[in-house]
């Protein structure tokens, strides 16, 4: 199973607009992997995009031949760094046939949005065009909690629902479990404090988790740890989760400007024993699971 990380910055890209810090200067000068934007990855074998941040149209275009077409979009939750670029589902070349309108041509090649009912309804509130696309047939809809798991090309995709706010009681986010018959991959993108780890199988090949907030900056300065009631996890909490879940390999993403760590510093951090089997993803990283 091939995984292409298109965007790994989460809610705060690097460089951050108007910021002149050392991370932003380096990212403006060198681009990826120092630069990070968005929260999306691509599964080329099923032409599946997982989340679509504000940067998704650009990230997809920039990936060039690595992203030939788009058949599925798996949506984890409504936040703008995961859903703000869903208009990308309508930004496709329309190969208009004779006696066919552009809308009809796009409907004929409609990608499928795959998520849960609660995530879809919340996303419609924040991304108004989504409902229009579905109503117009430009995007098809597969709600995993109603239609059951998605099956395509020998793959099976299941939802892993959880609440963004641990106290809310509403599963307004979902992770995804991808199984291509050979490898299994769980993607749990963000704000996953209340994610039920028991919903994961015991023999996972790989996971994609949020990096969590490091408690310290590379220069030793303290950062604020997330409050216990918040959905954000600390980096130490994410590492503990990786140990409990026990995948062959964990890729950590959502490494925003607020974390304060450069790509090179994270690569060095990942060398210690606490990071065995753990890798920090970066924009443009392609891995085989
Ligand atoms: Zn996010
Ligand atoms: Zn900066």
Keyword list:
binds zinc ion, 7-stranded mixed β-sheet, 26% strand, 289 residues, alpha/beta, globular, Metallo-beta-lactamase, Chain A, 14 strands
Would you kindly provide a written description of the structure presented here, covering whatever features stand out?
With 289 residues, this protein is α/β, with parallel strands linked by helices. The chain has a single domain, classed as Ribonuclease Z/Hydroxyacylglutathione hydrolase-like (Metallo-beta-lactamase, Chain A), CATH 3.60.15.10. It has helices spanning 22-30, 56-62, 80-83, 102-108, 117-126, 129-136, 144-147, 235-245, 263-269; strands spanning 2-14, 36-43, 48-50, 72-74, 112-115, 140-143, 150-152, 155-162, 173-179, 184-188, 206-210, 249-253, 278-280, 286-288. Strands 6-5-4-3-2-1-14 form a seven-stranded mixed beta sheet. A seven-stranded mixed beta sheet has the order 7-8-9-10-11-12-13. β2 (36-43) and β3 (48-50) form a beta hairpin. It is globular. The N and C termini lie close together (5 Å). The model has no long low-confidence stretch (mean pLDDT 93). The site of one zinc ion has 8 residues, from β1 and α3.
């Amino acid at each position: 199973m091939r995984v292409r990380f298109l965007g790994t910055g989460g809610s705060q890209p690097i460089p951050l607009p108007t910021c002149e810090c050392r991370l932003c200067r380096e990212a403006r000068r060198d681009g990826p992997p120092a630069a990070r934007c968005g929260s999306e990855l691509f599964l080329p074998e099923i032409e599946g995009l997982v989340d679509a941040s504000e940067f998704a149209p650009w990230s997809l275009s920039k990936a060039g031949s690595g992203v030939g077409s788009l058949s599925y979009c798996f949506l984890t939750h409504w936040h703008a760094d995961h859903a703000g670029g869903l208009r990308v589902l309508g930004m496709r070349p329309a190969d208009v046939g004779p006696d066919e309108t552009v809308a009809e041509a796009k409907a004929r090649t409609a990608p499928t949005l795959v998520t849960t009912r609660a995530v879809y309804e919340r996303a419609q509130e924040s991304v108004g065009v989504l409902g229009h696309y579905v109503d117009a047939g430009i995007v098809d809809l597969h709600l995993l909690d109603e239609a059951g798991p998605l099956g395509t090309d020998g793959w099976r995709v299941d939802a892993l629902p959880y609440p963004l706010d641990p106290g809310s009681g509403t599963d307004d986010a979902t992770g995804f479990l991808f199984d291509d018959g050979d490898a299994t991959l769980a993607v749990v993108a963000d704000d996953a404090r209340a994610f039920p780890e028991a919903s994961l199988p015991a023999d996972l090949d790989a996971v994609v988790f949020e990096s969590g907030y490091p408690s310290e900056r590379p220069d030793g300065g303290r950062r604020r740890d997330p409050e216990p009631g918040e959905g954000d996890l600390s980096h130490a909490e994410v590492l503990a989760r990786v140990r409990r879940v026990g995948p062959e390999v964990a890729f950590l993403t959502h490494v925003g400007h607020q974390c304060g760590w450069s790509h090179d510093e994270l690569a060095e951090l990942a060398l210690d024993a606490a990071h065995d089997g753990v890798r920090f993803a970066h924009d443009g990283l392609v891995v085989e699971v």
